[in-house]
Amino acid sequence: VTFCCKVFLSHSDRKVWLLFDYAEHDLWHIIKFHRASKANKKPMQLPRGMVKSLLYQILDGIHYLHANWVLHRDLKPANILVMGEGPERGRVKIADMGFARLFNSPLKPLADLDPVVVTFWYRAPELLLGARHYTKAIDIWAIGCIFAELLTSEPIFHCRQEDIKTSNPFHHDQLDRIFSVMGFPADKDWEDIRKMPEYPTLQKDFRRTTYANSSLIKYMEKHKVKPDSKVFLLLQKLLTMDPTKRITSEQALQDPYFLEDPLPTSDVFAGCQIPYPKREFLNEDEPEEKTEKVNRVLVEWFGL
Question: How many domains does the chain have?
Answer without folding.
Answer: 1
